[in-house]
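retry 2 of 3: previous attempt timed out while embedding S-adenosylmethionine. Reduced batch size to 1 and resubmitted. Inputs unchanged:
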Amino acid sequence: MFALAKVFVEQYELFAFNEPYKNELEIIKVWHTMPAAKLRRFKELTEFVLQDLDEPTNVASRAKHSRSLREQGNQVYKTKSKKSGNDLTECLLSASRLYTQAILEAENAYEELCLGFANRAMALQDFGYYEQAYDDCECALEFGYPKNMQHKLIMRQAYCAWKLGDAQKLGEHVACLEQLELNASFTQQLEQLQQELQLLQSNPQAEEVKEAKLDEVKRNNTEISTDAGGRGRYMIASQRIKEGEIVFTEQAECFVPTQGRLICQQCAASLLCAPIPCTRCHQRVVYCSRRCRQLHATIHGYECEAYRRDLLLPIGPFHLALRLVLTYMPQWLPQLRNGGSTAAELWQTLISIASAEHHWPTAPQHTQSLCMMHHLDKADASKLIYCVLSANQLQVYLYKCTNFYDQLLASTAASAEDWHLLLAALIARTNNQLLNNAHVGDAILPRDLGFNEFVLLRPQLWRAPFRLRLGCLHKFDRTTLVKSLNLPYYGLCNHACEPSLRSWYDGRSVSSYAARNIEPGEEIFNCYTLNYKMSSFAKRKEQLEQTFNFQCSCSKCVRAEPDQDYFAFHRYRCQHCEQIFVPAQLAELSWWQEPEPPQICCTVCQAPQDFSWHEEFLVLCACCDKPNARHEAYKVLDYLRNWLLDYHSLRQCLAKKLILACLTAKAAGHPFEDTEFGHLGRIMEYVLAGTEAQIGSNAVEYIPIMGCLFDLIAWGKYKCSKQRLAKMRAKLDYLAGETRRIFVNYYNDFIEPHCK
Ligand SMILES: C[S@@+](CC[C@H](N)C(=O)[O-])C[C@H]1O[C@@H](n2cnc3c(N)ncnc32)[C@H](O)[C@@H]1O
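retry 2 succeeded.
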């Protein structure tokens, strides 16, 4: 990261750009025409980054480290015969964790890599992750598992295929094993599998009903109009859409993980139990299955060297721009084939597609993406230069380190030099379009999950695949941003501070639901910032102006008092005059998040407020394993209701802290009195009502708190009516498939029994 930043600083000095913006191609041309000596230095620096960042692998030391981790895994795995119940689960998952580390560490030390996969297959199979165990066997074979032991893996695959009810695969593996000479024990296993195969064949299992996929996009509720007055295109309802109904769905053809997160690069799954890494790019890319690895192979072929050099993390948002260009170039090329032979002509061809009218709901994503709005024309010189430097670095990378140019040169009459200009200009333009249009997708994960930690392998959490232990749902306590996606249809929604949509991400897909009834012809708004109840008018204004270049004139912003709803979550009763006030300065509203909190004074009597209890409350939360501390904390929170009014942001924040601290203590086995659950239940209901008031009960933020309440119900310590439970259960249907599976299993295992 340092090398790239240093190079950009020097390149910035070399690139004196002070011309008015025409378009991205013209800016790129400017640096291509800088004085020869400067240009030489500029190019040297670009290439220096590519050379300097290359991290060759020391295969021997990788192998050594990987072997040591695998052997630790073996030690743990060996103890399984003495274990049962949760202890057995722990043993298998901790072995799987160590084998996973061994696989990641091995990189291209293939002798170790294949053994790591083979051993993980064994532990995962025992635990019941049959699909993943099957894939691991396949990986072990791919990476050179010793020939004389391959029958073990084939037997394992046959077993997994049987468990998965896949007669075809089972038949293939059984046929293969029948050709081999096996010892008595393996022969016995084979005979059993032969019988199972006959049973499967004579009694084929009903085709598993696959969950409805989002591949089929829903757009019939919406139309796109254009505003001649500068707001560009916008989305309207083509018919009445009732609150909670789907407004539209979209599936991103390209996305990237945010901040180097290890999610599947193909399907964006964020809960992996058996990550399959690329062996070349230093544990920076993983897949949830071999199929996903296969589907992503072409794009990764272009990115692998950049990952290997760790170029994509420091390049930040440009990574999505790069991926968009890599993804769509094959679709753009046929249009460019007859679109001229110079960079200028090809550029013009793309721009004419971008400025044409299309039927937006059905236009392909590669066309919609070309047409996305951007504001590079309003950017200052430093932003333009940074954009050029990043785009140049990526273009040179593609030229020097990949075979991406092959298709460009084979499909068009343009020269490599023309493509240098065009590609850099296209990356720069795409990046700016994405800054204005890209979306970030979240996942519900434990707050303390490490970057290279895989939650499905976490200790003390699971009792079976996708089945949590009693009282552990609260561990999924946070919505975390995990991916940036290109969703150009969603991007056609203009902004309002009170959105019409509640959007839920699932892998590469988004489903947007109506936040309230929407009438035919009414505009459908997204909210680009926190909504009007969660952030101040000034903050939203600043963000919208800086990033999106417009001033919001939505119904919430044009009111005489645009902050009235935001202030409703910051009302105090003065400790002296007992009048109600909101702190005078915006910066004072979230004082508890400041490193050096300001003194808050009542705006009626000016008396300074004493918030020393805040620190004390945090200390109590940290000691929630002790009953006295918990009782004191319940009391303080109850007392605060007189001073932090209604759904005060701070009171909600403290309530969440206390809930999580108590549930963590309870899950760790600390005894709780029955009366305490009454307190906790009330506190959870308070936070749920606050979340509903501030964001809505159909927003993803509602789910983690609901999960806490589920734990209480699951322990039999809190009662809800059947109707209430049914309503909460219905919310789980919004969740991403992988998370839904966990939450629904939990509901069925532990909540449903309490309904009877
Ligand atoms: C994600 S795009 C929305 C679609 C865009 N109108 C288009 O035609 O492509 C964001 C851009 O649309 C414009 N925009 C969005 N909401 C707006 C609003 N409420 N008022 C004015 N301009 C808005 C701004 O130029 C903003 O940068």
